[in-house]
Amino acid sequence: METVGLTTAAAALDAAIKAAEVQCVGVEKVIGVDKIISVTVSIVGDVAAVQAAVDAGVMAASAVGKVVSSHVIPRPHSDVDKLIEMFRKDKGESPQEKAPEELDEAAADSGLKSETETSSEEPSEDLRARRA
C-alpha cells in the first residue's frame, strides 16, 4: 500500500494487521516531487489474508489521507524478491530492520497504538503474497 504521509501509512498498517493474519516486512519512505512524502508498506501472509488486509488498510487510509496505490502479488517469483533486495542495498538500508521504529513514530504522530510485530519466520513461498 502506498500512501501520502506517515500518518496515513500508520492508519493503513494498523487496519491491515488488525484485519488479517499478516506481517509487516517493510516500510519505505520516499520524498518525491514537491517534497511530498510517499510511504509504501509491504506485508506478507496467505494470499487471501493479504488481500483482506490490503482492502482494510486502503479503506482506513482513505479516511485519513491519500492512498496512491495498492496491489497484491500472489506467490511472487523469486526474482521479485531479488529486485526488492537490490533496491534496498542500493539505498544502503533495510526497511525490514527499520520498520518497527518508523511505525512507532508514525503511530505516535497519528495517535494510534502500534501493534506491529515482526517475526523472523518468513511464510512459505507458496503461501506468501507480497504487497508492494
UniProtKB/TrEMBL annotation:
Residues 89-101 have a biased composition (Basic and acidic residues). The keyword S-adenosyl-L-methionine does not apply. One of its GO terms (cellular component) is bacterial microcompartment. Signal peptide: none annotated. It is found in: Bacterial microcompartment. It comes from Acidaminobacter hydrogenoformans DSM 2784. Residues 1-85 form the BMC domain. Its main location: other. Residues 89-132 are annotated as: Disordered. Belongs to the bacterial microcompartments protein family. The keyword Isomerase does not apply. Keywords: Bacterial microcompartment. This is Carboxysome shell and ethanolamine utilization microcompartment protein CcmL/EutN.
